[in-house]
Design a protein that fits this description.
Layout: E1 18-24, E2 29-34, E3 39-44, E4 52-56, E5 60-65, E6 71-75, E7 80-84, E8 92-96, E9 110-115, E10 121-125, E11 130-134, E12 142-146, E13 160-165, E14 171-175, E15 180-184, E16 192-196, E17 212-215, E18 221-225, E19 230-234
Antiparallel strand pairs: 1-2, 2-3, 3-4, 5-6, 6-7, 7-8, 9-10, 10-11, 11-12, 13-14, 14-15, 15-16, 17-18, 18-19
């Protein structure tokens, strides 16, 4: 047990529906989006240090970390993403913050996020059925996947969730309501199906509402197949 395990609640040693996390290797800690408690928690590993409230009063849904150790959090109520450094009280707005909507400077329910080596922030803009990329210091984002309404065509997404950018710059997206994982190159009109897309089911080539994607150091792809209550591994995705 790394964090929680003390029942549902809002004490420092409790969590209530944690839905995302990231590992802070430098501080040997886990940063957790504690969804129903409207806070982001920091739990230190292999020490007796008490858990800390890293950010309070935030409708967090996704967390990420950059190469300098700054923490990024999506706030689905405020339709924004902020960057937090140690000691910050308000964080720095890096994406959105212009109300709920479908303009390039807006989100409608931002969910999972990813930060690349250039500090660009990728956001699964779930209510707009698209993935947005906000470059560092940008005033608006660019659509890098979807944005053509909900649907299952190769140019569409339907409630995208977890996402990751591979070492070739390809954006890999858990296309939740389409029960598939998509790959999208920046600037492409259409994406391609990586896994799933064969109807909702339990077969090895099927998914059910996938929620997250990740790679290991060998380039294998892992998918959180949420509706099937399992984790799927697809070997040697990245060459």
């Amino acid at each position: 047990m790394i964090a929680g395990g003390n029942g549902q609640g809002n004490r420092l040693d409790q969590l209530d529906m944690p839905i995302d996390l990231v590992v802070d290797k430098e501080k040997n800690a886990i940063i957790i989006c504690d969804y129903r408690n409207n806070r982001v928690m920091r739990w230190f590993r292999e020490s007796q240090t008490n858990p800390q409230i890293f950010i309070s009063n935030i409708a967090c849904n996704g967390v990420a970390i950059d190469k300098n150790g700054s923490i990024y959090v999506s706030d689905w109520m405020k339709s924004e993403v902020r960057r937090w450094k140690e000691g910050d009280t308000d964080g720095t707005l890096v994406a959105g913050g212009n109300g709920d909507g479908n303009h390039l400077n807006q989100f409608r329910g931002p969910r999972k996020i990813f930060v690349d080596e250039d500090y660009s922030v990728y956001v699964s803009d779930q209510g707009n059925h698209r993935v947005m990329k906000w470059r560092k210091d940008a005033k608006e984002g660019i659509i890098v996947a979807g944005g053509n309404g909900p649907g299952n065509a190769l140019g569409q997404l339907d409630y995208p969730s977890g996402l990751v950018v591979d070492n070739l710059g390809q954006i890999v997206i858990a296309d939740s309501s389409n029960d598939r994982v998509m790959e999208w190159g920046e600037g492409n009109i259409y994406g391609s199906i990586v896994v799933g897309g064969n109807g909702q089911g339990t077969g090895p080539n099927q998914l059910y509402n996938p929620g997250g994607v990740s790679f290991d150091v060998e380039g294998n792809l892992y998918v959180a197949d949420s509706g099937n209550h399992r984790i799927q591994k697809y070997e040697r995705y990245i060459e």
